[in-house]
Amino acid sequence: YCVSKFGIIGLTQSLALELAPYRINVNAVCPGVVFTSLWEEHAADHARREGIEEKEVKENLLKNIPLARLGTPQDVANLVLFLASSRSDYITGQAINLSGGSVLC
């Protein structure tokens, strides 16, 4: 899992260098936990295995997220829209963590 994630970052940086002369920006969006139905299924499975309530799974996870909430699909969409806009013209080769600060812990 970690190797594949780092591979994406390396590919992002390589493509950013190769495509810069053509004014094409390349960035990677690296989301943390995003609250979706898939996450809910994962939380339910984890709760069953650990013999705890789903609410406790979420509470434990939030302890490691400084912004104290899970990400949403809209959070991801907002970043992608920004990166696709002219406002991000000078951003390339970046792996942008969208994690509520959890990678800082």
TrEMBL record:
GO molecular function, one term: oxidoreductase activity, acting on the CH-OH group of donors, NAD or NADP as acceptor
A Pfam short name: adh_short_C2
Gene3D superfamilies given in the database record: NAD(P)-binding Rossmann-like Domain
SUPFAM superfamilies the UniProt entry points to: NAD(P)-binding Rossmann-fold domains
Similarity annotation: Belongs to the short-chain dehydrogenases/reductases (SDR) family.
Name of the protein: SDR family oxidoreductase
